[in-house]
């Protein structure tokens, strides 16, 4: 549609300011920080559950040798 066609339907044409590169970088860095902050408790929980599972399985594989002491 050309400029006069836009004006015919009652819309005004104005120039759109280009996106700021600094703003885009700030949004990207903020997003990465949010993802890392969300991943920390998940990794902490996985390590805790993994440690407990390892202790349980290694205790079961070792048998009851420690129970007699």
From TrEMBL:
<keyword id="KW-1133">Transmembrane helix</keyword>
<keyword id="KW-0472">Membrane</keyword>
<feature type="transmembrane region" description="Helical">
    <location>
        <begin position="25"/>
        <end position="57"/>
    </location>
</feature>
<protein>
    <recommendedName>
        <fullName>DUF3566 domain-containing protein</fullName>
    </recommendedName>
</protein>
<keyword id="KW-0812">Transmembrane</keyword>
